[in-house]
Write a structure and sequence with these properties.
The structure holds two protein chains of two kinds. Chain A is an alpha+beta fold. Chain A contains twelve helices and 14 strands. In chain A, the strands form four sheets. In chain A, strands 4-5-10-6-7 form a five-stranded antiparallel sheet. Chain A has a four-stranded antiparallel sheet with strand order 11-12-13-14, sandwiched between helices. Chain B is of the alpha+beta class. Classes of the chains: A alpha+beta, B alpha+beta. At the A-B interface, strand 1, helix 2 and helix 6 of A face strand 6 of B.
Amino acid sequence: MRKFAHIDAHTVDEAVSALRLYGNRAAAIAGGTDLLGKMKDEILPRYPEALINLKTIPGLEFLREDAGVLRVGALTKLEDIGKEPLVCQKYAALSQAANRMASPHLREMGTLGGNLCQDIRCWYYRNPNNRFPCLRKGGGRCYAIDGDNRYHSIMGGSVEGGCYAVHPSDTAPALIALNALVVTSKRILNLENLFQVDVGKTTVLDADEILTEIQIPKPPDGAKSAFLKFAIRKSIDFPIVNCAAMITIFRGKVKAARICLNAVAVKPYRALNAEKAILGKQMDEKLAESAGLAALSESKPTERNGYMVQIAKTLVKRAILACNE
Amino acid sequence: MKAGSSNRSSCGRLDDGALYQELKLMPNKDVPGVELKKYSCPYCLITFDAFEAIKSHIVADHKSEALPESEGTVHLTINGQEYTFQVEPDWTLYYLIHDKLGFTGTKLMCDRGACGSCTVIMNGRPILSCMTLAIECKGKRIETVEGIAASNHPLVEEYVKHHCMQCGYCTPGFVVTAKALLDRNLNPTEYEIREALGGNLCRCGTYPQHPKAIMDAAKILREANREPGIRDAG
């Protein structure tokens, strides 16, 4: 790695002011498992001049229920979330997502906030030494459109001719299905609105803004949630497709549904069509299958990723059925 | 030129006494010609005659450490031994343990956090030392494969017995991960072991042997734990 300055932040304000001081030239580091890989490979056109360490801020690593709301600090380790019995019982999708992510070692290091704010894994973007100066680096084109796009978006680019890299988070769809809010140093926003596709950015967070907490409201009575992931290996791999659902069933009929896919589009993809397709209907396997079809009704796969459509359909179906068990 | 000549100490730096005398910063009654100076507080410029007095003034009135450590000073406990290092921000924990300290049991393979060869135990968690900055390990308790071997942990013997290695490069990472698992769970199922070792890669394909060795080591540890109880009862 090249040389950089390192600053331990001791409060959120201190971290924010240090980030503001450096503008876009510094990076915040929590678990570091994504950032250090990027720095070692020198994938970015500009190397961070300073790292602002968030791990030294006390009071950002917690997991507790306050008045029915599950509050998780941004620095909470993914392993702790996955193994927490409370999360396992009431917020199954989050627990399953945390347990299926990366490898045990990375879960012991990685934080929930970092998982939501992580960078894309597109192999053109990640190619060492900034070999492909793509749109996300301020360059002129997306190399995946004409290149090998087997792991890229099946829902089109960010804009016409825009970036095709998918968002790789496992916890994001689970938290969106659970209707989570995120608290930052500046504002509270719905998790669905956190993600953004821009040069050097995957979130709407400003350069001097950090994520501090994730809040999950109490699931409706009778709601069940589930998370499923498709990857080549059981451990270590990023998802090829993943899907989370939270379904409320009342007297055999679907009363409420939230379904979210990820790794299929440039941002976590809320399958609103699928939710609409099953609302108020009798829950059975056929309905789940029709939800899968509806969820992918707007898909436009590229040359090499048509197979992901089939996987996504099946995951939507299975996630819905898992909520009915 | 002869090494260590002139007024340079062995570490190649001007030794403190000589430096201070040269700069006339240090009040030294024993050295003729050196003017006695008072110590002035960097915060409020009040002057003091004695070094101890200014130290206690800074601690009491300015709520600051009298002699703050520099940014890169890291106190660590590695295998039960305390160390203090002066590190650079870009040093990884692996670099510190392996290259600087010489604990070569910790291996580097992928250097991207994917293979588990560089696993060490930090405050009870199995973590990847290649993706951890040394400067962020202040006050941490670290255990490497050398510490596990020195403690006569049954894992080492069981790994040999079950022949869990071919080339052996990934083995320390497996042993450290297994030790972290046994610290938390003395009776792991085969499924739990497979899950815990999910982040360790072995190109020789020794995977089936690891659960066997770890379960046998767990059994030995459980029996060893039971023994004092039996003795107490007797």
